[in-house]
């Protein structure tokens, strides 16, 4: 199929499913069944087996037609992390069961990876999964779980063989968050909100049919998930002067009385760096479309976190005393993070978490240093694990 043939197929689909008159969920289900959800996924699983690079054209055509989206801000973990992992490691039954309602937004996903004693060192997790007939009984605690308070399912890593080296004794599961053994408690952040949670797992029963990959393959499966997470956080498509740099640039234009040569120099430097990062992200997406996934996602995520923090700090300075105001510190449990729709104080505080979530900056810098720059490796407890099997 050529790109022109794909565009014609989309036109035919829109003619048969008018976004203005078709029920939203009915439209999304039909789009998935037509292979126009993820066009690079196989036929029967929301795609047509086409180049991933064509997805941007597909999304743009549907957006121009006024088609409903599948709430990607609320289900970013499902769309960006769970779906490609299920596609890569799931059984045919698992793909048929989970991918369609995931894409349509009927089922929202969260991620149960980090623990109180295993944040950056995921392989140090203590949550246990013990076989019990056709099921697994899972007990443990997870933290920093974004969206757990409204998620339907979770991707979960647990230790299934404590006698194996820590990287080899884990397995990967798909956990039903409605199980009575799942206890979700809010973690209030410096912003005043609780967008993430701690999750206690008490004899949570997971069918073996919801195990993703082989027993003991959890590290390999989790690595694939983490690769997709860092690309999703640091490599999103964006127009010029979008995101945080756009907000700060607008603040600069609206407050000429606060301009100084030093602030001007800082803004210009950060604007250029943001543009370089945006173009690098575009190049990264082109590589991904060719199946060339490497450590670049780690570098992009590090850059994203640093720029957000520096830009939000500059915005507070530009606003002077206004930047010290905080509109609302009441407790809330939001379903998404809105950097550009809130005030400067919120952006400044929330950006502090960018260098922690999705892999700490310190860990990702080590990955870039060793895998990209070829610097000598630090002494690592996991040095028996080849770099190709470690998170990128």
Automatic annotation (TrEMBL):
Acyl-CoA oxidase/dehydrogenase middle domain boundaries: 110-204
Organism superkingdom: Bacteria
Gene3D superfamilies referenced in this protein's UniProt entry, alphabetically: Acyl-CoA dehydrogenase/oxidase, N-terminal domain, Butyryl-CoA Dehydrogenase, subunit A, domain 2, Butyryl-CoA Dehydrogenase, subunit A, domain 3
Every Acyl-CoA dehydrogenase/oxidase N-terminal domain range: 7-106
Domain Acyl-CoA dehydrogenase/oxidase C-terminal: 216-373
Cofactor(s) of this protein: FAD
Keywords (A to Z) from UniProt: FAD, Flavoprotein, Oxidoreductase
Family per record: Belongs to the acyl-CoA dehydrogenase family.
Name assigned to this protein: Acyl-CoA dehydrogenase
Taxonomic source organism: Saccharopolyspora halophila
């Amino acid at each position: 199929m050529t790109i022109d043939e794909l565009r014609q197929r989309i036109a035919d689909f829109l003619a048969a499913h008018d976004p203005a008159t078709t029920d939203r969920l009915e439209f999304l289900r039909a789009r998935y069944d037509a292979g126009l959800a993820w066009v690079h996924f196989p036929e029967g699983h929301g795609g047509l087996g086409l180049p991933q690079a064509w997805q941007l054209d597909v999304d743009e055509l549907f957006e121009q037609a006024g088609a409903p989206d599948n709430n990607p801000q609320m289900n970013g973990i499902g769309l960006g992390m769970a779906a490609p992992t299920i596609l890569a490691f799931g059984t045919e039954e698992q793909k048929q069961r989970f991918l369609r309602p995931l894409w349509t937004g009927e089922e929202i996903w969260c991620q149960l990876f980090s623990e109180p004693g295993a944040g950056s060192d995921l392989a140090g997790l203590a949550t246990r999964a013990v076989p019990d007939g056709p099921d697994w009984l899972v007990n443990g605690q997870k933290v920093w779980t974004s969206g757990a308070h409204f998620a339907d399912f979770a991707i979960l890593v647990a230790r299934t063989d404590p006698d194996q080296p820590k990287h080899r004794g884990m397995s990967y599961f798909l956990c039903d968050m409605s199980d009575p053994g799942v206890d979700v408690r809010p973690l209030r952040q410096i912003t005043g909100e609780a967008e993430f949670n701690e999750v206690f797992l008490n004899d949570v029963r997971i069918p073996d049919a919801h195990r993703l990959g082989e027993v003991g393959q959890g590290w390999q499966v989790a690595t694939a998930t983490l690769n997709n997470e860092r690309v999703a956080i640091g490599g999103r498509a964006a127009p010029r002067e979008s995101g945080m740099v756009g907000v700060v640039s607008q603040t600069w234009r609206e407050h000429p009385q606060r301009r100084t040569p030093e602030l001007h120099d800082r803004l210009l430097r950060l604007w250029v760096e943001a543009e370089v990062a945006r173009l690098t992200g575009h190049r990264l997406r082109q590589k991904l479309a060719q199946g060339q996934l490497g450590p670049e996602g780690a570098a992009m995520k590090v850059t994203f976190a640093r720029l957000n923090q520096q830009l939000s700090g500059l915005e507070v300075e530009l606003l002077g005393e206004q930047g010290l105001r905080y509109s609302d510190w009441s407790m809330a449990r939001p379903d998404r993070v809105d950097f550009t729709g809130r005030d400067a104080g919120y952006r400044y505080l929330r950006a502090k978490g960018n260098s922690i979530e999705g892999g700490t900056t310190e860990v990702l810098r080590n990955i870039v240093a060793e895998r990209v720059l070829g610097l000598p490796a630090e002494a690592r407890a996991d040095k028996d694990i080849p770099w190709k099997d470690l998170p990128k």
